[in-house]
Amino acid sequence: MDHVNSAPEEQSGLPRHCKVLVVGGGISGICLGVQLRKQNIDDFIILEKSLDAGGTWLNNTYPGCGCDVPSLLYSFSFKSNVAWTRKYAPQPEILQYFRDCIDHFSVTDHFRFGVSVASARWDDTLKQWLITTDSGETISCDYFVSAVGQLSRPSVPTIEGLDLFDGSLFHSAQWPREFKPQGLNIGVVGNGASAIQIVPELAKSASSVKIFQRSPNWILPRHDHRYGVGWKFLNRYMPFCARIQRLFMYLAFEMRILFYNRRTFLNKAFTGWTRYRMRRKAPSQLTHELIPSFPAGCKRVLLSNNYLESLHRPNVELITERIDKFTASGVKTKSRSVSLDAIVMATGFETHRFLYPIEVTGKEGSSLTQRWKQRPQTYLGMLVPDFPNFCMLYGPNTNLGHNSVIFMVECQVNYLMQLIKLTEASKADCFEVTPEATTDFDNRLQQQLGKKVWNGYAKNWYTNEQGYITNNWCRSTLAYMWQTRRVKKSALRFSSRPCTKTADATPNVC
Ligand code: NAP
Fold first, then answer.
1. Which of 42, 104, 207, 494 is deepest in the core (most CB within 10 A)?
2. At residue 408, does pLDDT exceed 70?
């Protein structure tokens, strides 16, 4: 493809033009970077607003931080790792793994750190995207890829008096390095996936930990263990052993989707089993507060070996009254004032405004934010009509409650690589998904989502204000792999700049 600026000039470390511009240096950005390198597409950059790569695994450094998917599965299919020390590796090991991937596949030089993107605008004459950074530089690119993910912007609820609190107050994803919990009275707002990892760690040294729970969660044990010398030896010298373990883990996790259909025997059995497990571990006087009344799976089922156990400690208290307001000395609920030295807001992420605050404008001035006012509508969670050469990784409706999201990201990267190749092979300048294919995909998605347990029972972060499930995929990951395994040409249009039209490269070449 011809570029308007085929000889890139540097502007404070950024080229004026590149073929592929990726926003976000987390798991998806790294995965795409590796595949671009592998397929000898070197004219790409990855813009990352932080000063390092790793995304969520760079930002979340709270005590006890780890993943609730086993590390053998929560890793790329193309890069195994014999260095895992445990079945569920802690955050520093996960971050190191992604850093190793960047080094191993020589992606480092493609990163530009400390660069935030303000806007992206499609120029239909040039058939290029014009990306503007917060500091005002503009980069043109042929393909614009969002890899900003779903969990990058911390959400802090607006509760009265939040700014009045005199002690330390911070979000779980912005843990201050210098924070020492020893001897402090600490409040933890929220009891989601982050909070249940933080609380047991704080409880070890804090004077007291008060958990402010708004609604309960289903919690199952995490079958974690250290990997011994034998395991490491086997996996180093017989790598297929790790492959086989990974396959079995994948299949076991994949089966869990069967439990997530609403009003089914399997979901009821799953709920009953989880209730039984929780009753065995939770303090008996708290079972009423801790055990949800909605079906298991409705909110993300949490895995922990030490959260319910930590509630037995004398210095840990569960408070289920709503927070009325924050005061200079702590928190006020309906019936009491709780004095605190520090407050951790483990209140999750802004998961519904995809790509926010980047202003993305497609053909004829179409704004993605306006288009998605009600809910995002995409093709495969990746493509949007009127937004040519634009692709999202870990975009709307591609999150999972039952398996490794890395699998989904790899499916998407595979699809995008095919799409780029196909566009180039067609001697076209751009691809664009058709509205018909998008509507068809969306109708099926909504139909399937209607059967899922996330629907209608309790508030969860998968559902937006309008009541639509905007984050989760609706079926098995195998089904997603099947749909993304090959580019369906009938779902796409390929077109060229008028000036490059030739007899065999007409607009809409498909
Ligand atoms: P989360 O699951 O969304 O939990 C947020 C918590 O904050 C919930 O308990 C929520 O209560 C509470 N909350 C929100 N607003 C509140 C308010 N105004 N007053 C009181 N409580 C409030 O967030 P997260 O724990 O940070 O986890 C987010 C996602 O990150 C997870 O679902 C997971 O996908 C990922 N994560 C994964 C791991 C892992 O091991 N893989 C670890 C951490 C995070 P309600 O439940 O009532 O809404």
1. 494
2. yes
Q: Is 300 in the pocket of ligand 1 (CB under 6 A)?
A: yes
What is the rounded CA–CA span in Å between residue 200 and residue 315?
Answer: 11
The gap from C-alpha 241 to its chain's centroid, in whole angstroms, comes to 29
8 A C-beta contact, residue 404 and residue 478: no
pLDDT band with cut points at 50, 70 and 90 for residue 497: confident
Residues sharing a CB contact under 8 Å with residue 229, sequence separation 6 or more, in sequence order = none
Check if 463 has its Cβ closer than 6 Å to any atom of ligand 1: no
- pLDDT category at 11 given cuts 50, 70, 90 is low
pLDDT digits (tens, 9 = 90+) for 89-129: 999 999 999 999 999 999 999 999 999 999 999 999 999 99
Please give the pLDDT value at position 392: 98
Atom of ligand 1 nearest to the CA of 345: 7
The answer to whether 65 and 41 have CB atoms below 8 angstroms apart is no
Cβ atoms of 391 and 414 closer than 8 Å: no
Q: What pLDDT, on the 0 to 100 scale, is given for residue 239? A: 87
Q: 303 CA distance to ligand 1 centroid (A)? A: 13
Asked if residue 169 has its Cβ within 6 Å of ligand 1, the reply is no
Q: If you measure from the C-alpha of residue 346 to the centroid of ligand 1, how many angstroms do you get, rounded to a whole number?
A: 6
Average pLDDT score over residue span 482-498: 93
For the stretch 278-314, pLDDT in tens is 999 999 999 999 999 999 999 999 999 999 999 999 9
Among left, alpha and beta (phi > 0; psi -120 to 50; other), residue 189 is beta
pLDDT computed for residue 503 by the predictor? 37
CB-based contact 274:259 (threshold 8 Å): no
Beta strands in 285-352 (DSSP E): 302-303, 316-319, 323-326, 330-333, 337-339, 342-345
Distance CA 141, CA 157 (A): 37
CA of 24 to the centre of ligand 1 (A): 22
Distance 57 CA to ligand 1 centre (A): 16
Cβ–ligand 1 distance for 461 under 6 Å, the answer yes
Which atom number of ligand 1 is nearest to the Cα of residue 173? 26
Q: Could you tell me the distance, in angstroms and rounded to a whole number, from the CA of residue 195 to the centre of ligand 1?
A: 7
Provide the token pair at 256. 């869990």
Residue identifier of the C-alpha nearest atom 41 of ligand 1: 67
Ligand 1 closest atom vs CA 216? 46
- In sequence order, the β-bridge partners of residue 120 are 131, 360
Higher pLDDT among residues 236 and 252, named by residue: 252
Q: How far lies 143's CA from each of 112, 118, 364, in Å?
A: 17, 17, 18
Query: Would the CB of 157 count as within 6 Å of ligand 1?
Result: yes
Domains belonging to the chain, first-starting first, are 10-152+353-495 (3.50.50.60), 162-345 (3.50.50.60)
> For a substitution probing ligand 1, which of 65, 171, 214, 394 has the most ligand atoms within 8 Å of its CB?
214
